[in-house]
Amino acid sequence: QVQLVESGGGLVQAGGSLSLSCAVSGRTLSRTVMGWFRQAPGKERGFVAAISWSGSTDYADVVKGRFTISKDNAKNTVYLQMNSLKPEDTAVYYCAASTSNSGAYRFVNAYTYWGQGTQVTASS
Predict the structure, then answer these.
(1) Which of 51, 57, 68, 93 could form a disulfide with 81 if both were Cys (CB 3.0 to 4.6 A apart)?
(2) In this predicted model, what pLDDT tens digit does every residue of 49-90 receive, in sequence order?
(3) How are beta strands 57-59 and 118-123 bridged, if at all?
(4) Cβ(111)–Cβ(2) under 8 Å?
(5) What dihedral do alpha carbons 81, 51, 117, 28 form, nearest 10°?
(6) Taking Cα atoms as reference points, which of 25, 37, 55, 30 lies closest to residue 111?
(7) Count of H helices and E strands in the chain?
């Protein structure tokens, strides 16, 4: 059974940094596309970043240059380093694992497994 467990959320002042981790069990990262999504109150869950099995990355325009996705295959863990946080980055952040080859990794439907989410709050 595949399980994803996020950690590292919290409260930070605008302009600050946070680092999220997603520990994966039951599936190797070397054959999995991993994504980070976020959902603010009253809004749909939206794409933040993704990393392929080869290590190539993709980012939403609103976080490009501020957020970095990475992974450690040996630890089966994915990370999201968030710098220069803005109040509009406030949301519950979810990591997700895809088992498809669709290539549509910016979309929620491409992902099969989800973590429980971790709250990130950037105060102004």
Answers:
(1) 68
(2) 999 989 999 999 999 999 999 999 999 999 999 999 999 999
(3) unpaired
(4) no
(5) -120
(6) 37
(7) 0, 11
